[in-house]
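TASK: fixed-backbone design
INPUT:
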């Protein structure tokens, strides 16, 4: 059974930083594409960043380019370093995974496994 558990969310002031982590279990982590998504009440879940199985490819939403960095270690953890946070970054952040063959995408339906989410709140 594939399990994803996010951590690292919290409350920060604008301009601050947070690092989210997503610990994976139950599958061969190195063979999965991974992504970070976020959602605010009343809006669709949107892709934030994505990474290929061996970190050769990454992608970012325009709204976070230059501020967020996605990475993964060789064990079982996905990260999202978030710098210069803005109030509009406030959301529940989810990590997601999809098995090979997979692509670096922001389409929700391309990911079959999801974590429960972690809240990020940025105050002005």
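OUTPUT:
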């Amino acid at each position: 059974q594939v399990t994803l558990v996010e951590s690292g969310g919290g409350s920060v002031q604008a301009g601050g930083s947070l690092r989210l982590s997503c610990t994976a279990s139950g599958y061969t982590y190195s063979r999965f594409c991974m992504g970070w998504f976020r959602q605010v009440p009343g809006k669709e879940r949107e892709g934030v960043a994505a990474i290929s199985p061996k970190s050769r490819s990454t992608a970012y939403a325009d709204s976070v380019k230059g501020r967020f960095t996605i990475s993964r270690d060789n064990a079982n953890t996905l990260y999202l370093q978030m710098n210069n946070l803005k109030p509009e970054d406030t959301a529940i952040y989810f990590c997601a995974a999809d098995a090979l063959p997979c692509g670096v995408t922001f389409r929700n339906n391309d990911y079959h496994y999801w974590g429960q989410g972690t809240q990020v709140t940025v105050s002005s």
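COMMENT: The chain is about 0% helix and 50% strand.
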